[in-house]
Amino acid sequence: MGKKKRVVELVVISDVHLGTYGCHAEELLRYLKTIKARNLVLNGDIIDMWQFSKRYWPQSHMQVVKYITSQLAKGAKITYLTGNHDEMLRKFAGFRIGSFQIANKKVMTLGGKKAWMFHGDVFDVTMQHSKWLAKLGASGYDMLILINTFVNFVLRSFGREKISLSKKVKDSVKQAVKFINKFESTAAEIAISKGYDYVVCGHIHHPEMRDIVTSKGKVTYLNSGDWVENMTALEYNEGTWRIYRYADDPVAQTVKLPRRLLKKLDNDEIFRDLVHEFLDPERPS
Fold first, then answer.
1. Which domain holds residue 85?
2. I want to staple 170 with a disulfide (CB 3.0 to 4.6 A). Which of 52, 60, 176, 256 is the partner?
3. In a domain, 284, yes or no
4. Is 285 domain-assigned?
5. Has residue 179 got a pLDDT over 70?
6. Banded pLDDT at 87 (limits 50, 70, 90)
């Protein structure tokens, strides 16, 4: 008999970037297998359609998609909020089937309080005026993650701790810090003006939970972080929010995954796998 799963009222995940080298799909899968989320909000950039390449789609990335969809049959309510890296889905905003829906934003009532959820790229000036520059930056970011993987392999070989090159770069650039602060304050100000109690974002890969107070009121700003560098999510239970961190979860870290998840899939295998999944809904995920 497997270990009992934690029941969570609401889980918010963003910026998984499936289809890129930096995505920690196996860690995300381990986390998902330890919880039973009644409501799951996928807050943008789950599949990275900017970086997607038929040359790189590991089985573990496919398994994340299959595992999430399998939760629909188990009663979970799933909302996919579109982001910039999966903006192609925005044309399907409003689509709903059963307990699954695609939207650009969502308002939920939690314990009598209103939570306003959206990805957050609408506040990114680079996205609004220079999308080509943003896409170029995404390619460079993915390459940095690939280099970081090699560096950490060498460090582990010498018994040293892993490092995050991209995090060090962002933390050392004052402009990046300024952008994050501006992003958070802008989201908070608009949320306060609309009368929301919580504003929940993703996009900037910076997990955060704090109260922001202005002359017009107060709001709790929350950011789910990402599954590239931080491996974080937001969880809401019985009126309380918390930032989940995979690095602090020994239970998830010990979840064993089949060896086959390390294998990459070619296009034919992806197609066959999807067909088998739909033809055999009882197939274990």
1. 6-279
2. 176
3. no
4. no
5. no
6. confident
- Domain membership of residue 149 (yes or no) is yes
Quote the mean pLDDT of the chain: 80
Determine, yes or no, domain membership for 113: yes
pTM of the predicted protein model? 0.75
DSSP letters along the chain, please? -PPPPEEEEEEEE----BTSTT--HHHHHHHHTTEEEEEEEEES-SB-TTT-BTTB-BHHHHHHHHHHHHGGGGT-EEEEE--STTGGGGGGTT-EETTEEEESEEEEEETTEEEEEE--GGG-HHHHH-HHHHHHHHHHHHHHHHHHHHHHHHHHHTTPPP--HHHHHHHH-HHHHHHHHHHHHHHHHHHHHHT-SEEEE-SS---EEEEEEETTEEEEEEE---TTTT-EEEEEETTEEEEEEGGG-HHHHT----GGGGSB--HHHHHHHHHHHHH-TTS--
Question: How sure is the predictor about 275, in pLDDT bands with cuts at 50, 70 and 90?
Answer: very low
pLDDT tens, residue by residue, 113-162:
999 999 988 765 443 434 433 343 444 455 555 556 655 656 566 677 76
Q: How many domains does the chain have?
A: 1
